[in-house]
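Minimal example, chain plus zinc ion.
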Amino acid sequence: MPAAPAYSKPVPVPDPDSRPFWEGCRQGRLLIQRCRACGQHQFPPGNVCSSCRSDQIEWTQTSGRGTVFSWIVVVHPVPKPVYEKDVPYVVALVDLEEGVRMPTNIVGCDGDRIVAGMPVKVFFDRVDDDVVLPRFRPDD
Ligand code: ZN
């Protein structure tokens, strides 16, 4: 397989808490944590439950479906000129079916057509050989 073109934008740097999330993305699976003690899902990941502080945390695969909670349409490529060719683009908060809120991009839909509560579904955007970003598109 040929190498992906160089990706010039900032990419996430996995840490011990988030590494399983990013590994899941590379496998085409959107993973979040679930507390075995109280059943709460959480995102972003941590080493204890944000609800009950239990360390009995496990990773679980989401449906990849959710709804738009909030969004902005970025029209000025600041502060990183590397985004110049991307504008306008949409930065959003998506509420997953599992009850967590995730920052992401919405693509495949003009920003002025997005409405609160709009159903969206994850897809996995391989931006270089190591990094796969979860983004969302309308779930028709
Ligand atoms: Zn808990």
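The mean pLDDT is 93. Helices lie at 19-26.
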